[in-house]
Amino acid sequence: MMMSLHVYNTLTGKKEVFKSIAKNAVGMYVCGPTVYGEPHLGHARSSITFDVIYRYLTHLGYKVRYVRNITDVGHLEDEHNETGEDKIVKKARIEQLEPMEVAQHYTNVYRQAMHALNIIDPSIEPLATGHIPEQIETIAKIIENGLAYEVNGSVYFDVQAYVQRYHYGQLSGRVLEELLAASRADLEGTNEKKFHADFALWKKAGKDHLMQWQSPWGRGFPGWHIECTAMSSKYLGIPFDIHGGGMDLKFPHHEAEICQSLGAYDKPPVNYWLHNNMVTLNGQKMAKSKGNFITLNELFSGSHSLLQKAYSPMTIRFFILQAHYGSTIDFSNESLIAAENALTKLEESYKVLDSYSAAATSSVDEETEKEVLETVESCYEAMNDDFNTAKLIAALFGFSKIIHKLTDPVRPVQISAKSVEKLSDTYRSFWRDVLGMRPENANSEKIDDLLGILIELRQQAKDDKNYSHADLIRQKLEHLGIQLKDGKDGATSYFL
Amino acid sequence: MMMSLHVYNTLTGKKEVFKSIAKNAVGMYVCGPTVYGEPHLGHARSSITFDVIYRYLTHLGYKVRYVRNITDVGHLEDEHNETGEDKIVKKARIEQLEPMEVAQHYTNVYRQAMHALNIIDPSIEPLATGHIPEQIETIAKIIENGLAYEVNGSVYFDVQAYVQRYHYGQLSGRVLEELLAASRADLEGTNEKKFHADFALWKKAGKDHLMQWQSPWGRGFPGWHIECTAMSSKYLGIPFDIHGGGMDLKFPHHEAEICQSLGAYDKPPVNYWLHNNMVTLNGQKMAKSKGNFITLNELFSGSHSLLQKAYSPMTIRFFILQAHYGSTIDFSNESLIAAENALTKLEESYKVLDSYSAAATSSVDEETEKEVLETVESCYEAMNDDFNTAKLIAALFGFSKIIHKLTDPVRPVQISAKSVEKLSDTYRSFWRDVLGMRPENANSEKIDDLLGILIELRQQAKDDKNYSHADLIRQKLEHLGIQLKDGKDGATSYFL
After folding, report:
1. What pTM value is reported for the model?
2. In CATH, what number does B6-276 get?
3. Residues B64/B236, Cβ–Cβ less than 8 Å
C-alpha cells in the first residue's frame, strides 16, 4: 500500500504525516530573496526545493496558495551593531540611484533566473515595502499584548516578557540562559535593547535614510523579521500549513517569526517548518554575505574562474534535485558534469519511451510487468518520504533500465500496453511535472539533428571517395558560420 | 542641421522643444495596466509607444528613470455610482480567490506579454497596494490645504474650493460651468459629494470588502487617481519631465492627477503630458470595459474569431509603430498582414546589410553617398518630430532601397566604406535599439538555413538522377518529423 505524505518538521525534529488544515488546500510561505545583488546557487537551491514541493502537492490534488516574498527593504546588515544600515540603501548610495530602482533591477534579474530554472511563479509574490501598514499593525498588536517596547522611536521585541508565557528557542534550540549570560556584560552603554536577545521590530530612521515611512513611533522602517509575519498571516491566515526557507534562516529569522506570531495572535504561525540545506563550496556555505558564491548567470554562461564550462539551467536544477533537500550539496565541476550526463540519460530514455509503442503480443514478460508496478510505487514512495528527489531520480533510472529492455535491438522484452501506458504516464508526471525538468531547447535539438544528417552525408561522401561532394557540404556549413572538425570518431561541429 | 527633440504636449496642445529638468536625466511616469484581466491590444499600444520613447531618450544620451505602475486595487467600476465595487475584489469573489492572487496572476500574464513584445522593463514598477501610506500622506496634505473633505469615512477632492485657486480642466478642457449645471439636479439625496465634479481620494470599506487598510478616516481603500500622484512624486519628484498614458485617461484620471498635485504640493505634477491614441476595431475603441477587444495571447496564437491567422509579437509591435502614436489605428487582418510583410522586408534588408562589405574602389557613387547622409538625417528628424515612428519606418525603407542598389547583382552601386558604416550603424540603432525590433527566433533561422542545404543537396541528387541519394535525404528528414513537398519551384519543407 502507498504510504501517505510524510514531511520532516524542523520544529519537532521528526518526520510527521502531513495533514493540511483545509481538506484539499495548502497554504505555503517561503522566504524569498533580498534583492540587493545577483541571485546565486543558494537562491536556486531554496527556490527549486520549494518549487518541487509545490509541484508535488499540486500533483497530489491540493490547491496550493504559495506565497514567496521579496525583501526589498529592512534587512539590517548587522543587527547586533545598532548602526546597521539597510543593505539596499547602502548599494543605492554607492550607485547614486533611487533604492527602489536597485531593488527593481535585482528583482527582475531574480525573476529571469527563476524562469530559466523552470520555477513556477508563486501564487503571490509580496514585497516588504508594499506591506508597511500590515507590519505596523502587527507591531502595534505585539506592543498591546505587552511583548514589545518602544525606545527613542524604535520598537523591540521583549524576549524576557515572552519567556514568561511561551517557550523561546523552540525552533532553533537556542537556550535563553546561555544568551542571558552572554548578554549581561553587553548591556551597559548605549544599547537601546533591554535584553541581548531582543530584536528590532521597527527602527527609527535618520534624516538621510532614504527608505522610511511614518509610524505611530515616528518615521522609520521595519525590522527584517516582521515582514514575513505580516505577509504570511495576511495571505494565508494563522496558522497556515508549511513555512519553508533555507536552514540558515532558522535563527534568528524564523525563531523571531514564531515569537512575533505568538506575540501578536497568541498562535504559532505554522504547522510544519521545512528547511532546505546549504550549497557548500569546498565545505563552506555559499552565500553573498560570505563573498564565496557563484551567481546563476555566471553558471549559465561559464564566466567564473571556478567554472570549467557553462552549465545550463536544467543541469543546475538536476544537480540540486539529485540530493535530498535536507542534505548539503558540495559544489564541484565534476559533480555538475556528472549531473549533466545523468540528466541527458534520463531525457533520452524519456524520448525513447515517447516514441515507443508496444507490439501486439500475448506473451508479456511477467517479471518486467511487476518491475513497472514496483517502480511506479517507488516514485510515490520517494516523494511521500519527505520529498526525497534523490530516491525519485533513482526510481526514474529504474524506468530507464526497463525502457532499455523494451527496446533491446536483439531481444526486446514485451509488456502489456496497459503497463507501457502506466510507465509512460508516471515517467512524464514525475520527470516533467513534479521534478519540472524540461527539454533544454527544442530548437537547438532540431539544429543538432539536422547537422547530424549533414555530417553523416559528408562522411558517406568521403567513404565513397567523392571528395568534392564532401567539400561542398563543408563549405556550405562554413558559409552559415558552422565549422566542422574531423576527429578519430568522425566530425564534430561548432558555431563560429 | 539636426532639429532638436520636439514633443506634442497635450497640456498646451502644441509641439514644444523638449527640455529636461536635470541636464542629462529624464523622469518619466506612465500609467500601467489594471490587473484584473488579460492584456489586450490597447495595453500593447501604450506600452510600445512609451517603450520607444524610453529607448529614443536613452539613445539620445539621457539617463531615464522610467516608472510604470501596476494598478492592483482601487479602480472603481463606476465612480458615479456610489455602490461601485472594486473590480479586482469582484473577480476574486467570483473565483473564490484571495484578490492578490488574481492580481498576481494577471500581473504575471502582463509581464510575459510585455517581454514577448520586447518591451524593456521599466526602472521601477510600483504597485498601488504597495503604496498605501504614501497615498494616505498625500490625501492628508490635500485636506490640510483645504482642498478635500471627509464624509462618513470617505474623503473627496473639493473641486469648488480648487477652482478658487487653480484652473480646473486645464488638460481635458472640461468646462466646470457645464459640469456645474449638469450636477445641480443630481446633488439631492444620499450622494456624499458636495459637488458633482468632486472625486474620491479615499473610500470607506464595507465590512466584507476584502482589500482594505487602516487610515486616519477609518478602514478603507484609496480612490483610483491618488496612486499615480503618490507614486510619481515619490520616485520622480515634483514636477517631473514626462507623464504618459492612453488618451482615454486624460479625463478624469490625468485631470485628477493635476488637481491632486496642485492640491498637495501647490505644483503641477509634470512638464510634458504625452498621450497615445487608441486602437479601434471597426472604428470603436478597443477596450476591456467595452467588451470589444482581442487579447495579446489571442493575437499571438490566432485563437479569436476575428483573426485569420496568428500574428507574432514582432508583427504586433511593427503594426503599432507604423502609425504615429498620436493617430488612431484601426485593427484589421489586412493591415496586420501588410505589417508582417513590411517587417519581413526591413528585417531582410538588415540581414543583407549585415553581411555586405564594400568592395575596395575609388569610384564611389556621389548621389548614393548623399542619399545615405540624407536618410541618416531623416531618421533623427522623424524621431525628433514627436517620436514619429511612421516617418522613421519610411526612412528605413529608404535605406532598404539603397541596400538594393549596393547589392544589385547586375550593376552594383559603390559607396565609401565610411558611408557603409554610417548606414549600418544607423540602421542597427534605429531598427534594433530604438524601434526595438528583434529577429523572431534566431534558432529557427538556423534551422531554415540547414534545411535549405539539405533540400539543395537533394535537388542536386535528383538532377544527377541519383534517386537513391535523394530518397535517403527525404527519409532522414522524415525520421525527424520533417516532410518535404515538391512543387514547381522546388521542395518546401514543413514540420509534422
Report:
1. 0.86
2. 3.40.50.620
3. no
